[in-house]
Amino acid sequence: MANRTNPQAEAMTDRNLALELVRVTEAAALAASHWIGLGKKNDADGAAVEAMRKAFDAVAIDGTVVIGEGEMDEAPMLYIGEKVGCGGPKMDIAVDPLEGTTLTAKAGPNALATIALAEHGNFLHAPDIYMDKIAVGGGLPEGVINLDDSVASNLRNLARAKKCAISDLTACILDRDRHKELIAHCREAGARIMLISDGDVAGVIATAMPDADIDIYLGSGGAPEGVLSAAALRCVGGQMQGRLMYESDDQIERVRSMGHADPRRCFSVGEMAKGDVMFAATGVTNGAMLRGVRRRPGLATTHSIVMRSHSGTVRFIEAHHNFVQKTWTPT
After folding, report:
1. Coil, strand, or helix at residue 249?
2. Beta bridge partners of 30
3. Measured between alpha carbons, how far apart are the two ends of the chain, in Å?
4. pTM, whole model, 2 decimals?
5. pLDDT mean by block of 10 residues, the chain; 331 residues
6. In the chain, which ranges are E strands?
């Protein structure tokens, strides 16, 4: 991602960039934390978006948002195509300033501020429509999951790869009416199910976190969140497949206009997030992977994760913010 002719300069630049990404997600999480439990998801989202946008002003990249808050005429901040950063290497950015707006409004678990970064052209351009997804963590044989196979077949293959019974597996699924049949198939096969109300990025990433006790993610959710999830799994060697889902012919034509010749194709994790990828997230509310923001008068503590596919390194960062000493305070 940096100057390839000087390995030492490259390592230093990438380490600095990783820390800068965490600072951006920290800013968004701190801003959103003011709205936890207040029942105002749009206000929480707006605060996170504005804080993230301001924080990008100090990041040394020439960035373009390719997964963002919407199109330019629909979202005033962090829209698809918006330029961010203060100058540097050309990068594509995928963002979800507040993944779990409803979770934040209800003080539910697993709300996150998230960013993924890759060299230009390496993220799948995914419109804000649904994507059917299946994902597992790292350390498993290639091809252990297949979106075109039945639920029972995928669970059998996963159990065989993990040398356990299907009854020992836990599947994470969004609690939606559209998933009733999927849930029924999982239970018929004998797997346990963890239903989540929101936050499928956290659900997908949890498959790669040993302490989360989730073996597979199944079901449909937002396509932009699918790209963010794929970016995270690229960093830890997980497997994921996704297929865009359509509610109208207009959506199909829009996807074709974005350069996808076959709008029905199934994308692998490496096709959704290619090359050297960085991913960062900061917890807004407590979750299985990250602790949420803890606030005290003039102080706050954040818990973040930053990962890079090139090295496979995963770092957890706890930061203590002293707003008395800062020149600005997230709102």
Report:
1. helix
2. none
3. 32
4. 0.88
5. 50 69 97 97 95 94 87 62 92 94 95 95 89 95 96 98 97 97 98 93 90 93 93 93 93 85 89 95 94 95 95 92 69 46
6. 62-67, 83-84, 90-99, 112-119, 130-136, 170-174, 192-196, 216-222, 239-244, 266-268, 277-283, 294-296, 299-308, 314-322
